[in-house]
Amino acid sequence: VGVHTGDSIVVAPSQTLNDIQYQMLRTASVDIIRYLKIEGGCNVQYALNPDSNEYIVIEVNPRVSRSSALASKATGYPIAKVAAKIAVGMTLDQITNAVTGETKACFEPTLDYVVTKFPRWPFEKFNLADRTLGTQMKATGEVMAIDRSLEGSLLKAIRSLEIGLDHIELKKIAHESMEQLIERLHLVDDERIYVVAEALRKDISVEKIHYITKIDKFFIEKIKNIINVEKALAEEGITEEVLRKAKRYSITDSVIARYANTTVEEVRAKRKEWNIVPTYKYVDTCAAEFESKTPYYYSAYAQEDEVKPLGEKSVVVLGSGPIRIGQGVEFDYCSVHSSWALRKAGYQSIMINNNPETVSTDFTISDKLYFEPLTEEDVMAIINHENPLGVVVQFGGQTAINLAAKLEKHGVKILGTALEEIDNAEDRDKFEELLHKLDIPQPLGKTAFDVETAVKNAEEIGYPVLVRPSYVLGGRAMEIVYEEAELRRYMKTAVKLTPEHPVLTDRYLVGREIEVDAISDGETVIIPGIMEHIERAGVHSGDSIA
Fold it and tell me: What does the alpha-carbon distance between residue 141 and residue 119 come to, in Å, rounded to a whole number?
């Protein structure tokens, strides 16, 4: 208590309440809603004493909030839709449950899976910001993950965040001593869960972690289960039993390979040999008591697969993942329109996304909805299962674009702009060549893979220079630099230098900035709009009056 709901990792159904507590809070909610004569959606928040049954009501909101969106997607029960019908005078027993088509809206949803919601914070954009979490919400968005185990659901959520992590481990704290980790456990910030995992790796006891963080021992034990699998992989290598367990916890092939000190190919071969493949399950609101009519799925390493593939007449649309600064709801709405257009053109659309607060993850938008992380392994598993005609990557922002090359490598057909042309537009060197060929002037710019080259480039170009990494969105880690010392600081703190993501140095021109939007079918080009920025060049278009 004391960390805003939007900044909290949340699981559903509740894992640590006993039946007495659950029924007590449920009854209290019903009493409050009846007393306040609320009709429609409502959200009641409680604080419950972990050592007794004493509880306090924190707040009651007679409105739909981000939590309501989460509850809707987590259970498959469309709260807003039902609330709208109540508003025009219908009652719960008259409204049909859209998921089953048989039961009514007065049936409470039952979950036979675990959902984890994980907040997405913008700290990589504000690296000097205070990372402490408190009563004021700092997250810009969130992801949701569904699995049969809490461990699997948590790991899926972490890799859905797109913060460069594929597992519950932070490289920068891996070398820290026990004392440093214990000190870090006292901090309530966005990295705490990774600190808990690291503390368990260093054999700090569950009791001690619980005593410091007040996180329920149940959750710490679940993280410890993941750590135990890591240790088993490191000690025993890949045995069938350990591999099955690792996949049941949704640990990716690349992470398994890393811990078992082998290759991803080897892990895939072993999975094939022992037939360890993901199966897909329905989100059905009723724990399979009635047949589900809606195509809303998640993956689990279980026995039975409940999903029939659509095959050649289907197209996969990749969503844009969690909302963050620079990649917001506009990309999501583009993927929604893409899904509608595909259906209009006679194809069946398959949406893959993991953001609970957006329109694309509404199961009525597409012919099939997969609530999964947008990573190479997770997306490829769905594509192998569905065997679609191809994939649309244009509408999922940087998330989907970054997957294009990986998917094509597996023989997946990218629809629309070909991968080679995407690369020509994204890769600054290739784009520069193109401008040169067409005799279009551009600010002098150079690419660097290390600090010294960047410094040399800047001297040749002349300060001030604009520095930025390649393949980014929303101007992330982009700065105007006026001197060498500043450039060295930037290179050290702001960017990870790799051959795939070099740093670009461009001459900074003081002048007007104009933005042109165009659309093309490969032959005809149409320009719907030209915008002039009022701010000087070097202010991001998202921050500029136009």
Answer: 6
Reduce the DSSP state of residue 431 to 3 states and report it.
helix
| The pLDDT of residue 122 is above 70 | yes
Q: How far is the C-alpha of 147 from the C-alpha of 155, rounded, in Å?
A: 10
Contact 373/156 with Cβ under 8 angstroms? yes
User: Coil, strand or helix: which one is 263?
Assistant: coil
Helix (H) or strand (E) holding 503: strand 503-507
Task: Give rounded-to-5 percent helix, strand, coil for the chain.
Answer: 40, 20, 45
Closest CA to 429 of 496, 504, 526: 504
Give the pLDDT confidence of 288-310 residue by residue, as tens digits: 888 888 889 999 999 999 999 99
Contact 282, 296 (CB under 8 A): yes
416-475 pLDDT, tens digit each: 999 999 989 888 788 889 999 999 998 888 888 888 888 999 999 999 998 887 766 666
Dihedral of CA atoms 537, 540, 543, 546 in degrees, nearest 10, equals 50
Query: Residue 280 gets which letter from DSSP?
Result: E
Q: What is the spatial distance between Cα 193 and Cα 223, in angstroms, rounded to a whole number? A: 9
Element (H, E) at 339: helix 329-344
Nearest CA-CA partner of 352 in 322, 324, 320: 320
* Alpha-carbon span 314 to 311, nearest angstrom: 6
* 368-374-378 Cα angle (round to 5): 80
Q: What is the pTM of this model?
A: 0.92
Contacts of 369 (CB under 8 A, 6+ apart): 295, 296, 297, 350, 351, 353, 361, 362, 363
* 69 within 8 A of 357, measured Cβ to Cβ: yes
- C-alpha span between 167 and 254 (Å, rounded): 10
Helical ranges in 387-427 per DSSP H: 397-409, 419-426
Two structure tokens written together for 66: 């981000």
428 - beta bridge partners?
Answer: none
If we measure between CA atoms, which residue out of 462, 538, 449, 543 comes closest to residue 495? Answer: 449
DSSP run (H or E) holding 104: none
Q: How far apart are the first and last CA of the chain?
A: 43
Burial, 28: exposed, middle or buried (Cβ in 10 Å; 0-12, 13-18, 19+)?
middle
Distance of alpha carbon 173 from alpha carbon 165, whole angstroms: 13
How many other C-beta atoms can be found within 10 angstroms of the C-beta atom of residue 478? 16
